[in-house]
Amino acid sequence: MTNGQIHSGLVRWLSATLALPVGHVIKADQSGKRPAEPYVMVRMTGTEEVRQHPREILYGADQGNAGVIAAPLLEIEWRFSLHAYGAEPSDVLRPISSARHLAQRNEPMMPGVVIFETSQIRIVPDYVNEQWEPRAQMDMMLRGLTSDGFLINTVEQYSFKFTRR
Description:
Largest sheet: 8 strands, mixed
Order of helices and strands: HEEEEHHEEEEEE
Oligomer: single chain
C-alpha cells in the first residue's frame, strides 16, 4: 500500500462514517473550491516505522525469474490531522471517537489497516476576513503492514547436459 492509497482509504472511510454529503470530506492541499460547510479536510502529517526491525523478510522471484526479490515486512504508522469546518465542527468529528471502537466499522477502510489512536477534539477557531470561523481539529493514527520489494541478487542461468558412461 502506498501513502496515497492509505490517505484515499481514510477519506472514503470518513465519508461513510460521518453524516456529511458526498464530497464533503476532502484531502488537504487540493486545488479547487472548498465544499459548502460543514466539511472535513484530511491532511497526512507523516509516517513512521512502529518497530526498529522488520517482522520478517519475504523472498520471491522477480518478474523474469532472473533474480531474488526481498521485501521486509514493516509495521507502519500513518499520522493524519483532521480539520472540521462549519457551525458545530466538534459535532462533525465526534462520531469518529465511537466508530473506531467497532471492528465492523473499521473493516471497510482497507485490509490490514486499523485505527490505532485518535486524539481529543480541539476547538480551534480561526480569524478569517475579519471574523471568527468555528473550526475543530483532531489527530488520527492508522497502523498497517507494508512490504516494498527490492532486487537483491541476480541468479545466473546455465544449461547443462548429463551423460551416462
